[in-house]
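lol forgot to send this yesterday, sorry. C-alpha cells for the thing we talked abt
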C-alpha cells in the first residue's frame, strides 16, 4: 500500500510543503514543493501537523459530546483562552477518568483542506507528529533537534518543549517531570530520539539536571515512521472513508433489491392491466344484456343504474312496490333505528329512492350499530352518511336503495 505524508504548518499559507511517498516498506521518496506537484494516486494520505501547533489536554466531557466537535471546543475553552469557533477539537481516548483532547487551529486546517481539495486530494487523515513518536509504557519519548523538540508522555498525550542546548535540557521538560513525580506517576527513563544526527546532547548532564535516566534511542524522522504510527486527529474523515467502503460493499445488495422492486412493479402493472381488462369485459357484458332486455335504449352510460331504474318502472307498471319506494325503505329504516330513544328522530325526508334522517344523538356506538343494520337490510349508506352539523347536537344519515 502506498502512503503519502504531507508536512505543513497550519500557521503558514498552504502554498508549499514537504512530503514523503512510501510504498510496500521501501525507502520513501521525499520532496519539497508546491501542492500542485504532489504525487498522485496514493492509497493513503496523511497531513502531518508540527508538534508546536497541536495542544493535547485533558478534560471531562459527556460520552455523547465526544461525537460533536462543537461541544468539545467548549470543553477546552479555559485551557485555550480563545473563541471555541477558532479551535478544531478531536477526542483521542481516555486516561483514567479524564478524556484526552487534541486542539488545532480551525481556520488554518480549513485553509489546508481547501488547498488540498484544489490539488485533487480529498480524503486524508490529520496527524500530530507528537503521537507519531514511538512510545513505551513507563518511559517518555523525546524528539530533539539540538535546540528544541517535543515529548510523548503517554499513548494519547504529549507536548512541544521550549529551548535547550547540548548541556542543558528544556526547562519545560524539567517542570513536567517535577509535576508527575510529585504525584508518584513519573517515568523511569526518557528515550531520546534525535531528528538531526549531529544534535546529540550530553546525556550525563541532562541526567543530572532532570534526575532521570536519558536513553539514546536513535534517530527519528516523520518521513520514515510506520504507516500505522500515531492517532488521527480528524476521525470524521476516516468515518467518511469507511462509509464509502461500506457503500461499495453494499452495492451488490442494492442491485438485488432494485431488481426485486422492478419485478414487483412489473407484476403490479401486469395485475392492474388484467383487472382493467376484466372490468372492461364485465361492462361490455352488462351493456349487452341491458340492450338485449331494452333494445329501445338510446345510450348506455351506467348499465347497472339504468337496469335498476327500468326494473323499478316495470314493477310500478305491474302494481308492485320497489325496494326504492318510500314504504319498503321506511320499514327497513324503522327496524334499524329501533334502539333510538324517544324523540331522537327529528326529521325524515324522502326523494327519488333516497331517504335522509336527522337524529338528535351523538352516541357513536349507537350510530355505528344503526349504519350496520341499514347495510344489512340492503340499503346503501353513503360514505358521508353520518355528518355532525356544525354547532349542533344532531347527526344526518343518508341512505339509498341498493
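and heres what i got for the seq, position by position
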Amino acid at each position: 500500500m502506498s502512503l503519502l505524508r504531507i508536512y505543513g504548518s497550519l500557521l503558514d499559507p498552504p502554498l508549499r510543503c514537504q512530503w514523503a511517498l512510501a510504498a510496500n516498506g521501501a525507502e520513501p521518496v521525499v520532496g519539497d514543493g508546491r501542492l500542485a506537484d504532489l504525487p498522485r494516486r496514493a492509497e493513503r494520505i496523511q497531513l502531518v501537523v508540527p508538534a508546536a501547533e497541536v495542544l493535547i489536554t485533558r478534560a471531562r466531557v459527556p460520552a455523547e459530546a465526544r461525537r460533536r466537535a462543537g461541544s468539545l471546543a467548549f470543553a477546552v475553552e479555559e485551557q485555550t483562552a480563545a473563541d471555541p469557533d477558532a479551535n478544531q477539537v478531536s477526542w483521542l481516548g481516555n486516561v483514567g477518568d479524564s478524556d484526552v483532547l487534541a486542539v488545532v487551529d480551525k481556520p488554518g486546517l480549513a485553509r489546508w483542506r481547501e488547498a488540498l481539495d484544489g490539488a485533487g486530494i480529498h480524503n486524508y487523515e490529520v496527524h500530530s507528529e507528537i503521537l507519531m513518536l514511538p512510545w513505551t509504557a513507563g518511559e517518555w519519548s523525546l524528539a530533539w533537534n539540538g535546540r528544541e523538540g517535543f515529548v510523548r508522555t503517554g499513548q494519547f498525550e504529549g507536548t512541544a518543549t521550549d529551548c535547550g542546548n547540548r548541556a542543558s535540557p528544556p526547562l519545560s521538560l524539567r517542570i513536567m517531570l517535577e509535576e508527575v513525580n510529585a504525584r508518584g506517576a513519573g517515568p523511569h527513563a526518557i528515550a531520546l530520539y534525535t531528528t538531526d544526527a549531529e544534535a546529540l546532547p550530553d546525556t550525563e548532564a541532562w541526567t543530572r539536571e532532570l534526575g532521570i535516566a536519558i536513553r539514546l534511542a536513535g534517530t527519528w524522522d516523520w518521513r520514515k515512521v510506520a504507516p500505522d504510527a500515531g492517532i488521527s486527529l480528524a476521525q470524521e474523515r476516516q468515518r467518511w472513508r469507511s462509509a464509502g467502503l461500506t457503500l461499495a460493499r453494499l452495492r451488490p445488495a442494492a442491485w438485488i433489491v432494485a431488481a426485486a422492486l422492478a419485478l414487483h412493479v412489473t407484476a403490479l402493472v401486469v395485475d392492474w392491466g388484467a383487472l382493467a381488462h376484466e372490468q372492461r369485459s364485465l361492462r361490455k357484458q352488462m351493456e349487452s344484456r341491458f340492450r338485449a332486455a331494452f333494445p329501445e335504449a338510446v345510450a348506455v352510460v351506467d348499465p347497472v343504474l339504468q337496469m335498476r331504474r327500468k326494473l323499478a318502472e316495470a314493477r310500478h307498471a305491474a302494481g308492485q312496490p320497489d325496494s326504492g319506494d318510500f314504504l319498503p325503505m321506511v320499514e327497513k329504516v324503522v327496524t334499524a333505528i329501533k334502539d333510538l330513544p324517544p324523540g331522537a328522530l327529528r326529521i325524515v325526508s324522502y326523494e327519488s329512492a333516497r331517504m335522509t334522517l336527522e337524529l338528535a344523538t351523538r352516541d357513536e356506538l349507537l350510530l355505528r350499530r344503526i349504519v350496520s343494520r341499514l347495510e344489512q337490510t340492503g340499503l346503501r349508506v353513503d360514505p358521508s352518511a353520518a355528518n355532525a352539523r356544525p354547532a349542533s347536537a344532531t347527526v344526518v344519515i343518508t341512505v339509498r336503495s341498493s
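The radius of gyration is 43 Å. anyway ping me if u want another try
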